[in-house]
Amino acid sequence: MSTQSYVKILNEWDIVAARQVGRNVAKELGFGTVDQARITTTISELARNIYLYAGQGEICIEKLWDNGRTGLRIIAEDKGPGISDIRKVMEDGYTTSGGLGAGLPGVKRLMDEFDIESEVGVGTKITTTKWIR
Ligand SMILES: Nc1ncnc2c1ncn2[C@@H]1O[C@H](COP(=O)(O)OP(=O)(O)OP(=O)(O)O)[C@@H](O)[C@H]1O
Ligand SMILES: [Mg+2]
């Protein structure tokens, strides 16, 4: 039984598709509507960043079962330019594109676990998890 779904992010329509997959998986797992919204917002922000800054990449949506807990993990991975100062991009209002700079700090607040691995010239991998409470 597969517990992972992958959506390639190549264009703006793929952002919508990834969001939809995320909503369906969250519903299947039993997340409430507020958490479903947190999860779909997270997927939108991460997929949009991939599209804007890396051009293309992939969103993986994974079902988790751990010690009686049920969760959903989102992994956003690209082979784009990478992030040189991770601390800076986690500050509210920091943007290199004239955006709000609210995406990544917002995602961190919406989810339970959040991690960025990034190397300049190699790419970025953001892993974030929500647990049902
Ligand atoms: N996948 C990525 N690859 C390279 N740089 C990234 C990536 N994701 C984010 N960044 C960098 O981190 C900065 C902050 O991202 P964040 O999503 O928080 O804000 P934003 O995209 O600039 O604005 P907003 O999301 O509010 O519209 C971006 O401006 C960009 O420089
Ligand atoms: Mg953003």
Write the layout of secondary structure elements.
Blueprint: E1 4-9, H1 12-29, H2 33-54, E2 57-66, E3 69-78, H3 86-89, H4 103-110, E4 113-119, E5 123-131
Antiparallel strand pairs: 1-2, 2-3, 3-5, 4-5
Helix pairs in contact: 1-2, 2-4
The structure holds adenosine-5'-triphosphate and magnesium ion (MG).
Magnesium ion (MG) is lined by residues 45, 48-49, 99, 103.
Descriptive overview:
The protein is α+β, with helices and mostly antiparallel strands. It has 4 helices and 5 strands, in the order βααββααββ. Helix 1 (12-29) runs antiparallel to helix 2 and helix 2 packs antiparallel against helix 4 (103-110). The longest helix has 22 residues, at 33-54. Adenosine-5'-triphosphate is lined by residues 45, 49-50, 53-54, 78, 80-81, 83, 89, 94-97, 99-104, 124.
What descriptors fit this protein?
single chain; 133 residues; alpha+beta; five-stranded antiparallel beta sheet; binds adenosine-5'-triphosphate; binds magnesium ion
Total helical elements = 4
Distance between the termini: 24 Å
Largest sheet, spatial ordering of strands: 1-2-3-5-4
Beta-strand content: 25-35%
The number of distinct β-strands equals 5
Give me the oligomer status.
Answer: single chain
Q: Which of globular, elongated, flat, extended, rod-shaped describes the shape?
A: globular
Average pLDDT, all residues: 96
* Ligand names: adenosine-5'-triphosphate, magnesium ion
Describe the largest sheet.
5 strands, antiparallel
Radius of gyration based on Cα positions: 14 Å
Summarize the model shown.
This protein has 133 residues and is α+β, with helices and mostly antiparallel strands. Helices cover 39% and strands 32% of the residues. Magnesium ion binds next to helix 2.
